[in-house]
Amino acid sequence: MTSTVLKRCFALSLLSLFCAGPAIALVGSAQASTKTTPYQTTRANSGTPNSTHVTKNSSGVIISYGNSSITYRAPSAALATLGQALYQENCASCHGTEANGVPASGVSGAFPDLVGLGPATITFWINSGRMPAANPRSVEAVRRIPRLDNGQALAIAAWIDTLAPGYPLVPYPHLKNANVSDGAALFALNCASCHTIEGDGDALAYGTSSPSLRHVPAIQVAEAIRTGPGNMPRFTGNLSDAQVNDVVKFVTTAIQHPQNIGGFGLGGLGPVAEGFVGLALGVGVLALVGFWVGERD
Amino acid sequence: MTDVINTQRSKREALGPYGRVGKTLGELDDRLGVAKGGRTFMDKIFPDHWSFMLGEIALYSFVILLVTGVFLTLYFTPSQSYITYHGSYLPLDGQKVSQAFASTVNLSFAVRGGLLMRQMHHWACDIFVGAIVVHMARVFFTGAFRKPRELNWTIGTTLLILAILNGFLGYSLPDDLVSGTGIRIAYSIILSIPVVGSYLGFLVFGGNFPGTAIIPRFFILHCLIVPAIIVGLVGAHLFLLVRQKHTQFPGEGRTEKNVVGSPMFPVFMAKTTGFLFVVGGITALLGAFAQVNPIWQFGPYEASRISYAVQPDWYMGFLDGALRIWPSWSFHNWGHTIPFEVLIPAVILPGLIFNLAFVWPMLERKFTNDHEIHHLLDRPSNRPKRTAAGVAVLTFVIMLFVASSTDVLAKFFDVSLNTMLVAMRVLVIISPFIAYPITYKICRELQGFVGGGKRKTPNVVTRTAEGQYVATPSPVYVDDVHRGLPATPVPTFITEEPEDAGENGVRVVDR
User: Fold this and answer.
1) Cis amide leading into A132 (omega within 30)
2) In this structure, are residues A244 and A67 in contact, taking their beta carbons and an 8 Å threshold?
3) Which residues 243-282 in chain B show a CB within 8 A of chain A?
4) What ipTM, to 2 d.p.?
5) One domain, residues B66 and B133
6) How many domains does chain A have?
């Protein structure tokens, strides 16, 4: 008799423990949880300038990194007239005729203000095909075939630059002297946490994504690092031009043309594809062989 | 000149009726008495059904693992001390990397056949664990785990756990960016255990993460200790299999008291040796043509570096999936933190799943009240509840596995990662409850559908003189019907005489 009572007591205490655990957990999590906004990454995450060679303009914006790894060039001011025409045709419906992000019909704040953003930002968004946007209301614009060519992009950038000069200028990296190994280390430290270490990109939270780097030209890689498009942080002071050059070289060589020994690369999906191949082609085929040599009744 | 004694023929005759082999075996038997055991061994009966070959895939891929693994140990340096890499892979040239990483990259690039061996080792591991799971499913769904084979079921489940563990350990050894993340997660999982977690973590890692001890320790575990246990348990698994004899599917001439099939020698030996080579061949083909784990692209691990979209090998996927989708519950009070979001999915959940596997034979005995000895297998559809329960648990684990690739799925289907996360939470919980009734229904339907999946025979309709129509089933072709060969009993060459019971404690046996 007493043993059954003891057993029941024991079971009850166990049960109460199991019930209490999640209850306490819920209380704890309720304390810890705070409301978070969808976009946690902001442009403010731009790093601390630590290069002694940087030159800043009167308002504190870095205009030169003081070395010859990357040439920053402003688009020719002579293109501005053409740029204005192209802008009004392709961009004004959202960004407004003054490029200040206020469309003729809409309210301010719905679309980005382009004044003072600098030529590199403008050319990056146009040359990567993200602008003019396929769907202006989508969460993010994705890379596609550009609607405007590089000359037209430079023209628009030139016109916007006349409204208020901005930086960075369009970077032209000189990859000859870049160190791909340093680039690999910098990439692993700064870029792989979103773009993945193989540069394939992936889905991020709330419908955003990190794009694949497999087909991005060198100039656009440098532009993206320096301007921080979308959710990407802007790397200004914490990467020197030589370091940006290294990263660009790593992306355009080791990531875009990997030394891919060891057979078919299985689409860069990693262990998901490997597991599928191992189970289907490995275990599956071997089971079929067993089926072939064995009795089937 | 008739009695020339030095002819070929007279030599042959001098060797006896079984030739040189027979004579050698005779000599061996004179000294070691191998005839009796050898006879039993050669007459060990293996059922011919194809599903009995699944376990052999696991066995032979383990053999491949041992062979390729020995090759890899010759070139691998289990050390976390840093060196500057100067090898043939340029994007790493000049980087400070651990010796473990550098030696693995060198093994892949500079050692002749090294990458083939590494990839074969990795593929053989994927196949090994996969074959264990498939074999286990076969044993489960046919009821082969029932009395008297519960112990072997327990050994097999232990082998699965050890295989997964050793796969993880080996995956971690190259010290690359991706596997280092895995070790980091393992450390966090150990930390999540209440009270002892931090002590246990320091014990395993020899200090705080990452330290410099974990790769050498994993190396010893991966190459010596765990394989030794696996070899021992595989031996016990096979010993019990021989001792208890095989199960078999019910059929003509098959009862609870016999085993029908091919003897070890010569039929099964030929079949199984061939199968060993096929396993080796498939593994070699995969190793040669399918790239696996290109660690040089990942670079060395450092605690400050991380790559997005990192998944473990497939057999760890269900743990990763559970960790991904579990809500962020944790307990902070009285100066202590218990991270339930790690503890439950990574410690308690796998504990429950594997414990369920361990105790299943006992549970089934208890619930069905069936304490009989079973040697004849069940058709899965004849045990609808067991089959449905097994499918439900498998579905649960598979959904957890799918949850480990939420990012890949979100990218592929172009949906938000958050939507995917919520969808996986719902699917993981709901899908077992959907799988159970569907499987149960299918089983019940199949019970009434004997001969399902087999080739149907046409009916020959004849009209009798009275005008009556008679339909008689006939084979499609005369030779198209499987006919089981009549099984002949294994001859008993050795008759054992009963032992005399000793009267005064002193006993005697024949040699």
Assistant:
1) yes
2) no
3) 251, 271, 274-275, 278-279, 282
4) 0.84
5) yes
6) 2
Given an 8 Å threshold on Cβ–Cβ distance, is B251 in contact with A264?
no
Which residue range forms the structural domain that includes residue B419? 379-450
Report CB contact under 8 Å: A203, B54. Answer: no
**Which residues in chain B (30-69) have CB-CB distances under 8 A to chain A?**
47-54, 56-57
B97 and B79 in contact (C-beta within 8 Å)? no
> Per-residue confidence of chain B (511 residues) as pLDDT tens digits?
555 567 788 888 878 788 888 888 888 999 998 888 888 888 889 998 999 999 999 999 999 999 999 999 999 999 999 999 998 888 899 899 999 999 999 999 999 999 999 999 999 999 999 999 999 999 999 999 999 999 999 999 999 999 999 999 999 999 999 999 999 999 999 999 998 999 999 999 999 988 899 999 999 999 999 999 999 999 999 999 999 999 999 887 888 898 988 888 888 999 999 999 999 999 999 999 999 989 998 999 988 888 888 888 999 999 999 999 999 998 988 888 899 999 999 999 999 999 999 999 999 999 999 999 999 999 999 999 999 999 999 999 999 999 998 888 888 888 889 999 999 999 999 999 999 999 999 999 988 877 666 666 778 899 999 999 998 877 656 555 555 567 777 766 655 555 555 566 676 677 6
- CATH code where residue A198 lies: 1.10.760.10
Answer whether B102 touches A (CB < 8 Å).
no
Answer yes or no: do A205 and B418 touch at CB < 8 A: yes
Dihedral angle sign, alpha carbons of residues A171, A190, B321, B213:
positive
Residue A186 forms part of a structural domain: yes
Tell me how close the Cα of B31 comes to any Cα of chain A, in angstroms: 38
By C-alpha distance, which of A119, A122, A89, A94 is closest to A108?
Answer: A94
The three-state DSSP-derived secondary structure of B103-137 is: HHHHHHHCCCCHHHHHHHHHHHHHHHHHHHHHHHH
Q: Which two tokens stand for residue B72?
A: 């890899």
CB contact under 8 A, B54 and A287: yes
Shared domain check, B327 and B208:
yes
- Single-letter code of the amino acid located at B129: V
Q: Which residues of B touch A140 (CB under 8 A)?
A: none
The residue of A34, A274, A291 whose CB has the most chain B CBs within 10 angstroms, and thus the best one to mutate to test that interface, is A274
Q: Which residues of A touch B394 (CB under 8 A)?
A: none
H-helix or E-strand spanning residue B169? helix B150-172
